[in-house]
Design brief:
Length: 132
Amino acid sequence: MQAHNEFKASARFALWTFAWVATVALAKFGPQLLWDPPQRVAGWAAVAVNLAVGIGWIVAFTRFLRTIDELQRKIMQDALAVTLGVGWILGFAYVVTDQASLVARDVNIAVLPALMGVVFVVAFVVGKIRYR
């Protein structure tokens, strides 16, 4: 029964993740590709849908965490802690260096979540290996 609940929560979480990614793409690319000339109402509607689906994603992730066993939850918690730390440290380090005019060019903000994704995957794999 536990495995069935875990699979169901994982599938639901995956669906919410894909839905959230789709709404990010809609909010980002919709103004240039779908509604030309750009319409402010449509743009704000896409952002509102993205925020609503994001809240659904958070709820699905919370439910997913409740269904996994204690060891998996510990591994996930450790990986999330490392990811949050890296995001905060590098994010604020960039802000400080940018404000001090130490950075020659602007960095695309998309680099930070991509980097955090890589850090999370590495930390998760390290946790799985460590608790084998």
